[in-house]
Write a structure and sequence with these properties.
128 residues, mainly beta, seven-stranded mixed sheet, four-stranded antiparallel sheet, 11 strands
């Protein structure tokens, strides 16, 4: 059974850093683009970052460019998100998603329907 599982969420002070991980199992990890999304209560899930199946083509939502870095290690079926200079408004549940495509679809950040597998989420709390 295919699944993805996030870890690494924690509580940090504003300006701090966290590294999220997402371990995939039961799927051909190297055949999927992978993405990170986040969601706060009462708001829609929003795309944070996406990376192609090869790892060569990362993409970011504008608000995190220059602060977040997405990466993947296909040898161990793991996706990462390094988050630096965190802001209180980035407090959210962060989700990992597997997209059945070798590249990130043009609509990946807005169209969550392209993702086939979702994790349960990992909570990130940024205090001021």
């Amino acid at each position: 059974q295919a699944q993805v599982a996030e870890s690494g969420g924690d509580s940090v002070q504003a300006g701090g850093s966290l590294r999220l991980s997402c371990l995939a199992s039961g799927l051909a990890f190297g055949d999927y683009a992978m993405a990170w999304y986040r969601q706060t209560p009462g708001k829609e899930r929003e795309g944070v970052s996406c990376i192609s199946s090869s790892g060569r083509l990362p993409d970011y939502t504008d608000s995190v460019k220059g602060r977040f870095t997405i990466s993947r290690d296909n040898a161990v079926n793991t996706l990462y998100l390094q988050m630096n200079s965190l802001k209180p408004e980035e407090t959210a549940m962060y989700y990992c998603a597997a997209i059945p495509s070798t590249v990130c679809p043009g609509s990946w950040s807005l169209n969550i329907g392209r993702a086939k597998y979702w994790g349960q989420g990992t909570r990130v709390t940024v205090s001021s």
